[in-house]
Amino acid sequence: MDKVKEYIEKNKNKFLNELFELLRIPSISAKSEHKKDILSCAKLLKDHLEVNDFENCEICKTNGHPIVYGEKIVDHELPTVLVYGHYDVQPIDPVELWDSSPFEPQIKKTQIHPEGAIFARGACDDKGQIFMHIKAFEILNKNGGFPCNVKVMIEGEEEIGSDNLEIFIEKNQKKLECDIILVSDTGMIDKKTPSITIGLRGMTYMELELIGPNRDLHSGHYGGSVINPINELSRIINHLHDNQNKVTIPGFYNDVIEYSKPERKKMESIPFSEIDYAKSVGLNNPSGEDGYSSIERRSIRPCLDVNGIWGGYTEEGSKTVIPSKAFAKISMRLVPNQKWRKISKQFSDYINKIASPNVTVKVTEHHGGEPYLTSTESKAYKSASDAYKDVFKKEPIPTRDGGSIPIIAQFEKTLKSKTILMGFGLDSDAIHSPNEHFGVSNFLNGIETITKFYHHYTK
């Protein structure tokens, strides 16, 4: 057993207990009542950096939630790695669907994780994954020191768009100078098949409000004679896809890269079962844009989804009204070449075109981010690949992730640095959902792999 693995084995209970302390803090960025929790979480992370001999550690104020920063400068002649992550988490709703308290972490055995998985909000996204880096720092610090310079930036607004992080990066370009950026906020193909994410979809997030009558109306007195905003909203949503599940917004696909048959054939080598993929979420079959596999649909193809819809009376019992207003929240995942602000405008123009003149339409652009693609030929990528091979005994497969980390493209634009996405989560980990969890072995293997990345990167 090498020193890294030996240290992890000896300290795994301590690592888990420290992670649990972090997971108990309800750092929900979307809700203002958790402002104190956000600050508590930032302070705890700063403490962990200082314990590992990081210098210039600070909690940087923004117009929103703070950013935790620290650095370990060994030698200015050595390369510098910037580690990015986020400590904010998604809301826990619907809380009644959780099998245990979202902020009281528990280890439970599952079919995929017979050794146990950590159940808590943020276990995988992203507290568990950023904490892997902090424990890798501990191992480096206590076993020969850091082989290169390391800077750390952990934000508190990733789940709500990272708007203030963009401003922070613009103002602190000198402070954040680096050779490569390291991020763990993605996943692997499965527990035994490591992968490195080389592509991320971009996103634009919109809200749609339709206003009809000036007040809620009695559906007997007015039903059938005035426009119902919920009916109209349903009609509009129905017109956002055609019968082949393609998005109908004019110009939506104009900039989408069409891949050749040989390029698409390569994607078929990724271990993947369409049926298992569907069954894992309680469905019989996957579905989506005609002519593409599920792997393609969630990586090289854009999509549009309604994330929420509401209006009228939704409480217990009945109330026969025609509502004054109806609302929907809609996200679009984008692929390389698409620009999120351009897509947002196309969406807004199309909604206003197809909506009835009998409703007032309000389209709000909440946030967005560009798609991202990186090379498999860089020294940093090859170092990450070698680290995975050390731990998993097989070469990781380069994959494209369907999710979005909007700030990654901003990093490259502003800091002129590429990002290596070393994720250890699984599709089954239920991030953003009730019963989010993260396999104990994934957590520990992640610590080992990240530690070994530094040794390979500085050879």
Number of strands: 18
Shape: globular
* Count of individual domains: 2
CATH superfamily membership of the largest domain: Zn peptidases
- From the helix content, strand content and strand pairing, which structural class follows? alpha+beta
Please report the distance between the alpha carbons of the first and last residues: 21 Å
Q: Record the strand order, biggest sheet.
A: 1-2-6-3-7-17
The CATH architecture of the largest domain would be 3-Layer(aba) Sandwich
Proportion in helices: 25-40%
Please report the first level of CATH classification, the CATH class of the largest domain: Alpha Beta
Query: What is the fold-level CATH name, i.e. the topology of the largest domain?
Result: Aminopeptidase
Radius of gyration: 23 Å
Strand content: 15-25%
* Unreliably modeled segments: none
The total of helices stands at 13
Q: Tell me about the largest β-sheet.
A: 6 strands, mixed
Rounded average pLDDT: 96
Protein architecture, described:
The protein is α+β, with helices and mostly antiparallel strands. It has two domains: 3-200 and 371-457, Zn peptidases (Aminopeptidase, 3-Layer(aba) Sandwich), CATH 3.40.630.10; 202-256 and 302-368, 2-Layer Sandwich (Alpha-Beta Plaits). The protein is built from 13 helices and 18 strands. The protein has helices spanning 3-23, 35-51, 127-142, 163-171, 219-222, 229-238, 261-267, 274-279, 294-297, 340-354, 379-392, 407-415, 440-457; strands spanning 55-60, 67-72, 80-86, 106-108, 117-119, 149-155, 180-183, 195-200, 202-211, 217-218, 303-311, 321-322, 325-334, 360-369, 372-373, 397-401, 419-421, 437-439. A six-stranded mixed sheet has the order 1-2-6-3-7-17, sandwiched between helices. Strand 4 (106-108) and strand 5 (117-119) form a beta hairpin. Helix 1 (3-23) crosses helix 3 (127-142) and helix 1 (3-23) packs across helix 13. The mean pLDDT is 96.
